[in-house]
Design brief:
Helix content: 25-40%
Number of strands: 16
Strand content: 15-25%
CATH class of the largest domain: Alpha Beta
Number of domains: 3
CATH topology of the largest domain: 2-enoyl-CoA Hydratase, Chain A, domain 1
Structural class: alpha/beta
Number of helices: 21
Distance between the termini: 60 Å
CATH superfamily of the largest domain: 2-enoyl-CoA Hydratase, Chain A, domain 1
Radius of gyration: 27 Å
Length: 515
């Protein structure tokens, strides 16, 4: 027995060496943590339990028999984060570039499957050069099954992917199938085809950073939700993000005690939001004023900045917030904002997170580029997501809401439970000037004092139809509220809706969202 225990200890020690001391040092010199260091930093001290530590690839071609490493380039197992059980895998770039072969992939399949069967979140730390070409079609077993398991987990347990090195080819799709995708700046790159292939096929020359760096993927493509300056910050973001998520779709996020009074008034909102519709302001200041302790965790802050999404707490309970940002495009909704918000809405609904909208939107962004790009289809995703969502949904119209953006940002008829509006809010199919031109076009053409008559009709329409009292008289909104009461009215509504149960819907295998 003693000899066998010595042998076991030696094997475990060898597995922990990854690709060897020299390559581990190279990884650190690049400013990156090693695969095991990442797990150690992220998880509670001493909680990690490794699985399949001694697995090896079974490839004998191309000299691979001499290139075997225990663990096969990925560290897998389970542990806890702030006491919560999670499953995790961390790819090791020091072993064959972190490439995915059949055994490497099988270890990941198992972790994803176990996360679903035990109903706990899974953390995916990606640092891989992609498919291991020496294993040929065995890569179908290695990579493709990962996609399948990601999809089976979707909406069942939270999946968080972090790009912490190279993540190319098929590996990128696995990360994209997760609920959230983070990326480290400068030392991490994610793309399907690299610069060399692009140059060969299209003649384009592009650097790794310009093609798949965190800046471009978090701001231009929107593939990445959060960018981090280094490995440590990326792992810290994962820990914070996890605080807002439940263990699975059968639970709600954990509520936390807050010293921020639920009935706290926010009189500063009157100063933050100008009544002049042509003046801009920062909606993030409104969010900070109403959530507990001004703590708002924004998701996708660098992409589609005309709409804001993220998590906060109100009365200690997690809420998902969707808000227009008047500082960008005047708060108009465009293609990218539609996609960004729709995915967030569906994620919140999957994990039992109530949704709150803060509305100040003139409509969908006009223009041929938007129409040719399919704004109808993309905008329809928001309508679909809101209608499908069964969690409590509350809308507060801060300043304005026009046309197609009315259902896109929330009213009863799209499935919202409570709708509030400030006294100065405007809501209608069109603005007063456009309405006056349509309704009084003939009269204005023949009038002697056209300008005076037009101004009169605009004001008449404004006073009659654009006020929140017109909407309140038709029960389009539930209440006209004082701005200072915004926080406590939303919290009160959330408390009332905590036991909400929808009546049964017609059975269907699944809907057909306009992707």
């Amino acid at each position: 027995m003693h000899e066998e225990l010595v042998k076991l200890s030696a094997l475990e020690e060898k597995a922990c060496e990854g690709g060897g001391a020299e390559k581990l040092d190279q990884q650190r010199k690049l400013g990156k943590m090693t695969a095991r260091e990442r797990i150690e930093y992220l998880l509670d001290s001493g909680s990690f339990v490794e699985l399949n530590m001694l697995a090896e690839h079974q490839c004998y071609d191309f000299g691979m028999v001499k290139k075997r490493f225990l663990g096969d380039g990925v560290v897998t197992g389970y542990g806890t984060i702030t006491g919560r059980k999670i499953f995790i895998y961390s790819e090791d770039a020091t072993v064959l570039g972190g490439s995915t072969g059949k055994v490497h992939g099988a270890k990941i399949h198992y972790i994803l499957k176990m996360a679903r069967e035990t109903m706990v979140p899974v953390i995916c730390l990606n640092d891989s050069g992609g498919a291991r070409i020496q294993e040929g079609m065995d890569n179908v077993y290695g990579i493709t099954q990962i996609f399948y398991q990601n999809v089976m987990n979707s909406g069942v347990v939270p999946q968080i992917a972090a790009i912490m090195g190279d993540c190319t080819g098929g590996s990128a799709y696995s990360a994209a199938l997760c609920d959230f995708m983070l990326q480290v700046e400068k030392t991490a790159h994610v793309f399907i085809t690299g610069p060399a292939v692009i140059k060969e096929v299209t003649g384009e020359e592009v650097s790794f950073e310009d093609l798949g760096g965190a800046k471009v993927q978090s701001s231009r493509s929107g593939v990445v939700h959060l960018a981090a300056r280094n490995d440590q910050e990326c792992l810290d973001l994962i820990r914070k993000l996890l605080i807002f998520l439940p263990q699975n779709n059968m639970e709600k996020p954990q509520s936390l005690p807050s010293k921020d009074p639920v009935d706290r008034e926010v009189p500063e909102l009157i100063e933050i939001v100008p009544t002049d519709m042509k003046k801009s302001y920062d909606m993030k200041k409104v969010i900070a004023a109403i959530v507990d302790d001004a703590d708002f965790f924004e998701v996708g802050p660098n992409y589609a900045k005309n709409i804001i999404i993220g998590f906060g707490r109100m009365g200690g309970h997690v809420v998902g917030i969707v808000a227009n940002q008047p500082r960008v495009f005047g708060g108009c909704i465009d293609i990218n904002a539609s996609d960004k918000s729709s995915r967030f809405i569906r994620m919140c609904d999957a994990y039992n997170i109530p949704l709150v909208t803060l509305v100040d939107v003139p409509g969908f962004l006009p223009g041929t580029s938007q129409e040719y790009g399919g704004i109808i289809r993309h905008g329809a995703k928001m309508l679909y997501a809101w209608s499908e969502a069964s969690v409590p949904k509350i809308s507060c119209i801060i300043r304005k809401m026009y046309g197609g953006s009315i259902p896109a940002m929330g009213v009863h008829q799209i499935g919202f439970d409570q709708v509030f509006a400030w006294p100065t809010a405007e809501m209608q199919m069109v603005g007063a000037e456009a309405a006056a031109r349509i309704l009084y076009g003939k009269e204005l053409k023949t009038a002697e004092n056209k300008a005076e008559l037009f101004a009169e009709k605009v004001q008449e329409y404004q006073d009659t139809y654009l006020t929140p009292y017109h909407s309140a008289s038709r029960a389009v909104i539930d209440a006209v509220i004082h701005p200072k009461d915004t926080r406590k009215r939303i919290i009160s509504a959330l408390c009332m809706l905590r036991t909400k149960k929808e009546s049964s819907r017609a059975w269907r295998k699944h809907g057909n969202i306009p992707l």
